[in-house]
Amino acid sequence: AHSTDTFSYATYHTLDEIYEFMDLLVAENPNLVSKIQIGNSYEGRPINVLKFSTGGTNRPAIWIDTGIHSREWVTQASGVWFAKKITDDYGQDEQLTAILDSMDIFLEIVTNPDGFAYTHSKNRLWRKTRSITAGSSCVGVDPNRNWDAGFGEAGASSNPCSETYRGKFANSEVEVKSIVDFVTNHGNIKAFISIHSYSQLLLYPYGYTTTRVAHQSELDQLAKAAVENLASLYGTKYKYGSIITTIYQASGGTIDWTYNSGIKYSYTFELRDTGLYGFLLPAKQIVPTAQETWLGLMTIMDYTLKHPY
Amino acid sequence: KEDFSGHQVLRISAADEAQVEKVRELEKLEHLQLDFWRGPSQPSTPIDVRVPFPSVQAVKVFLESHGIKYSIMIKDVQVLLKDEEEQMFAFKSR
Known about the structure:
The complex is a heterodimer of chains A (309) and B (94). In chain A, helix 3 (94-102) packs across helix 9 and helix 6 (216-234) packs antiparallel against helix 9 (286-306).
């Protein structure tokens, strides 16, 4: 694409095309967008995060990531659309402008670059990282079971051949450790939203224990408002609740760690659909999925702005 | 590139905890190479599993013999993948 205006948001793209898009967006918006490399993947690919900022130093921030499970293609594609939406709407949309006038937004579009490249080259249904486990012929760790929250407890597998293999130790995956280090060093992230697909859910902690989080009712209320706003566009129905009560026990999960690290507004989205196409959602649904998800994201971001802590 | 011809995605509706447990037994049989898109959790939640072609018959017999209801969510995964690739290629050539 020659510009982010001619880039096609209604088709799936390769890793290189997404990284080129990111560079285009930065070049077109030098006063709003910058690219930060937070590390290198296991196979040596850059792990890039887009930073949207209107100034200040170490402002309170919102983190959004997509594609931690590489086969969930509608999430990376939505992440690309979110990035463009932010640059289009800043200065136009009152709500987003207010958010960016006080907070920064970090957006990691391809959170599992090796896995994503592998879905294009070898196996479209690859989910995990591509790290080698000594002593096993099976490859990869589930990056949403590798965080230091309930790590090793029920809700993940110790079998390297399993799709939910937790890894040898917490943060063993550089794709996870890079985020942990970034979030810890930044120290002022107030909302963390990790985006998956599919099954149309909005989830909050915990996944590794039935213990209710301290802010359960607030997170539940906010989730309710977010899914109502999301549904207002195309009527897409979401369920919401804690991970363990809504789907199943899952240990070592991203938002359990972020919540335990003090980031109160920690959520996971599971995007379209509920089980017609699953991970193979047709490209024509990318833009409507991104548009409706954006309404849910804006609900959470606006609330975070208005409820500092 | 991995070919998924004949792979089916089954949507399993477990009626109770015992049936969920039965499906969990399937999950442990590595030779079936099952890929759970939505893992077994509670009776009210659908379980989606991709079944490689060589295992399709055996899995269906297992489910039916235990009276576990299922439907076919995706009849042939490779057909959808081919559509997806064609869509990407068409976009690129445009």
